[in-house]
Prior knowledge:
- By secondary structure, the protein is mainly beta.
- It has 3 domains: 4-62, Roll (SH3 type barrels); 67-124, CATH 2.40.50.140; 128-184, CATH 2.40.50.140.
- The protein has 1 helix and 15 strands, in the order ββββββββαβββββββ.
- It is flat and about 70 Å long.
- The model has no long low-confidence stretch (mean pLDDT 88).
Amino acid sequence: MVPPTEIRKGKVILYQKTPHLVLEMLHRTQGRQAGFVQTTLRNLDTGSSTTTKFRSTDRVEILHTDNQRLEFSYVDNEGYHFMDPETYEDTVLDEKFVKDVIKFMVENQSYDILFVDGTPVQVQLPAVVEMKIVEAADAIKGDTASSATKPVTTESGLVVNVPLFIKRDEVIRVNTDSGDYVGRA
């Protein structure tokens, strides 16, 4: 148990008997009053976020975390399979851990998996991912009256608006925060 001033962004703490990822942390003081730490936490079981204040007299338990780079192999009725490229050990994640990020995941690509006390709890995506286009309509000459973009479908099933010159089988870069086209790979 440590004081709340030891909380840092990216750490996982035990809050209300469930692990929470610290998204933001601010140490505040108000005049002569005791300071407090204001945090934004994401519940790793439900995915919901909450803002919480910890007084300087409170105690917080910081959980042991580990990031491992694993390769996304395949999906079956057991879950989403990730393989350690060095040991070939298979790690299976339940759908609840990947439901928000699956549209950005491509088989045979490596992703960072957050482990809390040896249990996988979250897939952490990079800021930009590269994806191959599997379906793209042909651009019609002079079709720039409204906007010069068209929808395409990537190999994960994600639909992205791209410029008219992008064609099928090209690899594009997609922002994982917004789902927007960034550029060609």
